[in-house]
Amino acid sequence: MSYEEVKKAKNLIQEFAYKDREKGKLIRQGAKERLYGLIYKDDVFAKLVQDKLILAIIEAILGSDFVLGGFSAHILHPNAQRMGVHVDYPYWAMASPFPKHPILEIQVIWMIDDFTSDNGAPLFAPGTQNLATTPNFDRFEQTAEKITGTAGTAIISHGLSWHDTSINKSDRSRISLLGNYTPEYIHPLENNLFDFQSTTIENSTPQLRKLLRHSWMSKNEQIYGMQFKNS
Questions:
Q1: What's the CATH code of the domain at 144?
Q2: Does residue 152 sit in helix, strand or coil?
Q3: How many domains does the chain have?
Q4: Contact at 8 Å (CB) between 183 and 66?
Q5: pLDDT in tens for each of the 231 residues of the chain?
Q6: N or C: which end of the chain has fewer CB within 10 A?
């Protein structure tokens, strides 16, 4: 993301979070907040989830038939605690050990603020996607690395990778955007109709309509064929 895009996205997230907080629409867990419906609120978010480089990487991993299973802003206020070591949906909804193939989820984390050593940067345990199991807390604590970087940077991670947020020990809130891309056959965890605006879809690209599952197959086709990525 460019400096201008980051600045605009941050200002909008803060504005929308304030409004949704007043309306009781934010999902809150302690000092952590989640803000949804952003794609319908401003084009900067719609463009972000369609970034050509990001989507090329996603397609190389998941295959051509993938959707946006979730997109939200994650706000960690000062003293926000760890989320808890986990794998991403749909894996955590399944029994361990998990299937390694086909890959069922890729997460993208966009840094809207700098991720520093003290403001809640994410922790990842390298290589744990190859284990395809429920996280082991002791092993995670021994191997996890904190991922820091400058605002505008994107982290792309395998859904099976063990990860967590660290504690925000700073005196400022830290904002990120989370996008979860899955094959089309995975039922989404998040509701892509939340705060729906029809004009967004009417004026959107075919790519965005597909990502948000607003593109429907022809009524003349008996079977919904998909291109699977098995390895």
A1: 2.60.120.620
A2: coil
A3: 1
A4: yes
A5: 999 999 999 999 999 999 999 998 899 999 999 999 999 999 999 999 999 999 999 999 999 999 999 999 999 999 999 999 999 999 999 999 999 999 999 999 999 999 999 999 999 999 999 999 999 999 999 999 999 999 999 999 999 999 999 999 999 999 999 999 999 999 888 888 788 888 888 888 989 988 988 875 555 665 666 666 665
A6: C
